[in-house]
Amino acid sequence: MPAARSTPVPALPAPPAPVAPAPGVAPGGRRRRRRPANLGVYLLLVPAAIPVLVGLGYPLARQFVISFQEYGLAQQFGRPAEWVGLDNYVTLLTDPYVWGVIARSVAFCLVNAALTMTLGMALAVLMRSVGRAARLTLQVGMLLAWGTPVLATTTVWQWLFDSQYGVINWLLAEPLGVTGMRYHSWLIEPASFYLVATVIVVWMSVPFVVFTVYAGLLQVPGETMEAAQLDGASGRQRFWLITIPMIKPVLFVVALLQVIWDLRVFTQIHVLQRAGAPTRETHLLGTYIYSLAKEFSMAGAMATIMLVLTLALTWFYIRRMLREEEM
C-alpha cells in the first residue's frame, strides 16, 4: 500500500502579549478598591489633634464669625453683636489704603524670603566646605543670632541705626566719607525704614535656613558626588544638577515657612514704628491688624483676608510637596 501523505498543519498565530492593567485597575477590567486604612492609625492621632483643634481651631472659627458681625468694645460687656454679613469685607476691600498695605506686605515678604533663602543656602554651603574650627565658629554665631529674643535684637539694631549716636551713620560719614549721612534718620522715609526692617528680619531668619539646609546637604551621598566628579562634572554642575534636586524637599519646606513668617511679621515693624517712624506709611498687615484692635470685627475680617492671602502665596509650595509625596 502506498504510504499516506501527511498534510502539513498550518502554524497557529502567536497569542497576543498580555496587556498590563493600568494602575489601580484589576486584570478583569474592574477598578481596584483601595484597602481602607487601619482605624487604629487615626486613633493614634486623636491625642495630638484635640489640642490643635482647641488651641487653633476655635480661635480661627471665632475670628471668622466675628468678621461677619459688628463687634466692638460694647459687645465685650454683654451687648449682643449685630450680624452685618459682608459689610466689613466690603469696607476693607474698597479702601485703597488697605490695598496699599497688602501690596507692601507682599513685596516685603517676597524680598525678605528671597534674601533669606539666598544667604542661608550660601552660608550652608560655606559651612560644609570650611574646616572644623571655622564651621564651629559659624554655628555658634548663628545660634547666638537665632537665640536672641526678637525684641532685644530689634532694639540693638535700632541703636545701630540711630540718627545721632548710631554706628552705621558714623561708619558711613567718617571712614567712608558719604556726605549727609552723619545725622541721617533711617526711620523717617518709608524706603529706608523697610531697608532697616529687612536687615533685622533677614538677620534673624538666616540661621534657621542655614541649619536646615546644612542638615540636608549632609544627606547627599558622597559616592554620588565622587562618581559625578569622575565623569567630568564641574563643581557648579554637581551643585545644580545633583545637590539641589536631592535637597529640593528641604528647600520647599524652608521656603514655605519663610513666606508665612515674613508675611505676618509684626514685632520688628512695631518696635521701629514706635521709635519715630510714620505709622500710616509703614504699616504692614500685622501692624495694621493691630491698629484695628478696638474694632474686633474689622480686625477679624482683615485677619481672614491675611489668612486667604497666605494660603494663596503658599499654595504653589503646598501643591508641589503633596505631589512629591504621592510619587
From TrEMBL:
First-listed, main subcellular location of the protein, grouped into a coarse class: membrane
GO BP field: transmembrane transport
Membrane-topology descriptor: Multi-pass membrane protein
Alphabetical UniProt keywords: Cell membrane, Membrane, Transmembrane, Transmembrane helix, Transport
Top-rank taxon, per record: Bacteria
Cell compartments where the protein resides: Cell membrane
Membrane-spanning intervals of the chain: 39-61, 97-126, 138-160, 191-218, 239-261, 296-318
GO cellular component: plasma membrane
Domain ABC transmembrane type-1: 102-317
UniProt cross-references to InterPro entries, sorted A to Z: MetI-like, MetI-like_sf, UgpAE/MalFG_permease
Region (Disordered) residue spans: 1-31
Biased segments, Pro residues type: 10-21
Family listed: Belongs to the binding-protein-dependent transport system permease family.
UniProt name for this protein: Sugar ABC transporter permease
Species: Actinotalea soli
